[in-house]
Amino acid sequence: MRIGVIIAAAGRSTRFGDGDKLSQDLGGRAVLLRTVEAFTKRDEVAAIVVAGPPDDIEGFRSRFGPALGFNGARIVEGGRTERWESIRKAIAELPDDITHIAVHDGARPCIGNELLDRVFAAARVAPAVVPGVAVRDTLKRVGSEQVSAAEDDGIADMILGDVGKSSTSGRHVVETVPRDNLFAVQTPQVFDAALLRRAYASVALEGTTDDASVVERLGEPVLVVEGDPRNIKITSADDLALVRAIMSVAPPPDRPAHLRF
User: Fold this and answer.
1) How far apart are alpha carbons 38 and 210 in whole angstroms?
2) Beta strands 29-30; 25-26: pairing state
3) From start to end of 78-170, where are the E strands?
């Protein structure tokens, strides 16, 4: 088994707020480096390609190039709009002799060996494998229209008095969605290399949100194995705080006042 790993790292981090989420400190190393290091320790991994942001690819190389190169990873230019653009480009940069392709989010640094063991073992017998966690919360489908209680002073006064009227917007429930057999899918997703190459070369890619959905459009089965609730993706600053707690690392200390600017 020779696995080529693609790390998707071309996103703009618009929901994270200030700063680049992949550069955030996790115990002295950046989020992206922590993610890549999880794969460098695996004997099955033959190549690692990191798909970076095309609009800042030189800055990305400046920030991460030396450390990624030390870990045997190579940076390639990702896509500008959709995830599948990055993956399609990265697939073309992988060696021809790999047997499997694993795709992982650069912002999922809590990937552990137990989960990798499980996904890689399943990929030996199934052509497409993804980790997933059973949905436990009640799910509600809501309407697209934003409704504000502040539009009705009587309702707002009854609920809040004079406080917080501007923050009472929301959307009405349309239906409760049964959660039976629903899974929240994670990465890494691992595929037979020939299958994933064929899927990316032959199906319509618009609207796909992960690599499993590309394979599904080809009509091929995808196996879901047990994921890990700790394998979260950093999207917001709150997610970063949770990842630090999971990894038992402290946030970096504040810089002295005379060095802040």
Assistant:
1) 21
2) antiparallel
3) 100-105, 128-134, 139-142, 147-148, 169-170
By the 8 A CB rule, do 73 and 49 touch? Answer: yes
Same domain, 83 and 188: yes
Tell me how far apart the alpha carbons of residues 223 and 156 are, in angstroms, rounded to a whole number: 48
Place of tokens 């060095």: 259
- Looking up tokens 């060996």 gives 113
Could you tell me which residues are beta bridge partners of residue 128?
Answer: 191
pLDDT of residue 181: 92
Predicted confidence (pLDDT) per residue in 152-185, tens digit: 555 555 555 555 555 577 889 999 999 999 999 9
Do residues 91 and 6 touch, judged by C-beta distance below 8 A? Answer: yes
1-16 as b/e: b if 16+ CB within 10 A: eebbbbbbbbbebeeb
**Closest Cα to residue 40, out of 70, 78, 65, 63?**
70
Range of the domain at 94: 3-133+181-255
Rg (CA), the chain: 21
- What's 49's domain CATH number? 3.90.550.10
Separation CA 261–CA 211 (nearest Å): 42
Query: If you ran DSSP here, which 8-state letter would residue 251 be given?
Result: P
Which among 89, 86, 73 is positioned nearest to 4, based on CA atoms?
Answer: 73
| Number of domains into which the chain is organized | 2
Q: Which two tokens stand for residue 169?
A: 């917007």
